[in-house]
Amino acid sequence: MPPELSQGPALFIVINPASGQHGITQTRELLAGIFLEAGRTHHFVPVASPRELQPASEQAAAQAASCGGVLVAVGGDGTINTVAGAARDAGCPLGLVPGGTFNYFARSHGIPQDQEAAARALLRAQPVDVQVGEVNGRLFLVNASLGLYPQLLQDREAFKKQFGRYRWVAVLSGLVTLFEWRRQLVLEIELDGERTVLTTPTLFAGNNRLQLERIGIEEAVTGRVGEGRLAAVAARPIGTLAMLGLLLRGAFGQLGDADQVQSFAFRSLTVRVRGTRKLKLAADGEVGVVTPPLQFAVAARPLALMLPAQEDRVPVE
């Protein structure tokens, strides 16, 4: 990179390798053109496969921290989650160029969804500390969940690998999972020193007010998210058809009106799972395996996010 390109902190750019070589090439050309035009020093981080995303992000984050640079995530919420964890651990700011479907984290902070607009906004952005969640030390920006929801995500990916990435494939896989799911989690929940037992097919912890509002969770809960609180959402034990009805309510933004759903805000929540040594956990769409008990909490250390200048932000909607 020519030495004269130094207009602001250097950008270390991590692109989701799942985009495919054609998509990565197009994105690189777009971003390189914008940053070269602006005279901004930038480096594209080599990531050969999804398995290399985390170690590559950690190495690039260390380089960014050592020179006062910015680690930039290009992709959806799952990619951003991995890159954000590396940035926070290394102590460097995170920049975003959204490339996913929902992009709740970027949208909630007014970052443009168009990649060209997001890249131009990044040139004038400034670091601002934002709240993130943690579960057993694992970072989440949007949500983390147990039970049915991680299974839906895992089955959806399996269906897409077999039949392709089409909307009807996602819908079909969701219906299959829903009609096959029979498990109920028996959770011992400790909140503010009080313990309760909750039987539910799924527990959802949210750190994104926009997503919670979209599915219809009440203002009394969502209004505190991002201000030192997370939100928990759980369904009471119900049958398959009733669960399908809840999913439809969520799609139409009416989930909070359902009698079968309970939600509450919290700063820290301890969850023990009866009869289970290991279970699946989804964090920002990425599914892994965890060992209870689980500690959901607002992370003590925030994330430094490159927030666009006021005139570059888009309305949160």
Present the secondary structure layout:
Elements: E1 11-15, H1 20-38, E2 42-44, H2 53-67, E3 70-75, H3 77-90, E4 94-98, H4 104-108, H5 115-124, E5 126-130, E6 133-135, E7 138-140, E8 143-147, H6 148-163, H7 167-180, E9 185-191, E10 194-200, E11 202-206, H8 209-215, H9 219-222, E12 230-235, H10 240-251, E13 261-266, E14 268-273, E15 279-283, E16 286-290, E17 294-298, E18 303-307
Tell me what the structure shows.
It is a single chain. This protein has 317 residues and is α+β, with helices and mostly antiparallel strands. The protein has two domains: 11-131 and 302-312, Rossmann fold; 139-298, Tumour Suppressor Smad4, CATH 2.60.200. Helix content is 37%, strand content 29%. Helix 1 (20-38) packs parallel to helix 5. It starts with 10 loop residues before the first strand and ends in a 10-residue tail after the last strand. The mean pLDDT is 86.
Distinctive features:
317 residues; Rossmann fold; 2 domains; six-stranded antiparallel beta sheet; globular
CATH architecture of the largest domain: Sandwich
Please provide the count of β strands. 18
- How confident is the prediction overall: mean pLDDT? 86
- What is the rounded Rg? 20 Å
Largest sheet: 6 strands, antiparallel
Separation of the first and last Cα atoms: 38 Å
How many domains?
2
Strand order in the largest sheet: 7-6-17-14-9-10
What is the CATH first-level class name of the largest domain? Mainly Beta
Can you tell me the residue ranges where pLDDT is under 50 for at least 5 consecutive residues? Answer: none
| Helix proportion | 25-40%
According to CATH, what is the topology of the largest domain?
Answer: Tumour Suppressor Smad4
Which range does the strand content fall in? 25-35%
Number of helices: 10
From N to C, what is the helix and strand string?
EHEHEHEHHEEEEHHEEEHHEHEEEEEE
Structural class: alpha+beta
**Form type:** globular
